[in-house]
What we know:
- By secondary structure, the chain is mostly helical.
- The chain is 62% helix and 0% strand.
Amino acid sequence: MSEIREEVVVNPTMTAKDEAAKTNALIAYGLMIIGLFTGPFWIIGAIWAMVKKGDAQGTIFADHYSNITTTFW
């Protein structure tokens, strides 16, 4: 029998800016999910994403901010 091994690949090229962009995107997503049940958090999550979008320019997570603001509008 062959053994199936799953390898976890860690991206060593993530900079501190990428990590911050990832964290801020997750915060915005979390606020918007909570906002599905309590309206004001939906708006707060969208505003958070709009404010932090500039900080995420040039990172691998920049497209998430566009997705969040598009979903909001």
